[in-house]
Fold this protein.
Amino acid sequence: MTTLRLHGAGLGFRRELIPALKTRGPDAIDFFELAPENWIDMGGAYGRDLRGFTERYPFVCHGLSLSLGGPSSLDEVLLHKTRQFMDAHGIQLYTEHLSYCSDGGHLYDLLPIPFTDEAVKYVAARIRRAQDVLERRIAIENASFYTAAPIAVMDEITFIRAVLEEADCDLHLDVNNVYVNSVNHRYDAVEFIRALPSERIVYMHMAGHYNEADDLIVDTHGADVIDPVWALLDKTYRIHGVAPTLLERDFNIPPLAELVREVEHIARIQAAHQADEQAIRAS
């Protein structure tokens, strides 16, 4: 199957959205993302529906349970199944969270990895093995977290950069997660984004969150994107250039038309920056 090129603005592929998407796929949606764990071995009507979409749109696989930083052995059975699934649907890009979610069983949360040199080497080795099994270069996503890493000899940005370098993998930049962590851990979100390596950013996320308190934000993917996060996306494009960017919405999912308005917002910001870049090149 031909691999479709990832570009533009995208939306998370949810089963409850399929009827509306089948009626008329909105022009604003350039690509979709799915969690392979939710679709591997899926047959019946849902399997046929997915095939119809992967034949027409580029897709990304965004893993939920590989637990790159976890103490348990890397789940190579899942990786082999994921590679077969991606091959079957012509999906090239796989991403996972730079965190862990298992310890002898699933913990149903994404937990912070210690920011240490030992952890850099441990996680990077697991990423390299995942790339070998998937037969693809993968991207890791900067994760939100709510308590300080249990052990830290470096800060978050240094840890992320070190893992990217040691593993020689790409970056899946979640703009909302940067905003969430900047509030929860009191750092400058723009300076954090500025310190990321542009050449490794292949894809971005936007999402909403929940304000638990003035100094505590919970990354829920269950609300509209707020203005400060839109502004941070604009600054991110200004710093690193435009990359494919997807809207995540996992809970409190509104009608498709409401989600499309946010996808269109992403596309407008992208278009404005692309017009600026073209004007600069033409001058």
Summary: Residues 9-282 form a domain with the TIM Barrel fold (CATH 3.20.20.150). The longest helix spans residues 256-282. The first strand starts at residue 9 and ends at 12. The CA atoms of residues 183 and 215 lie 6 Å apart.
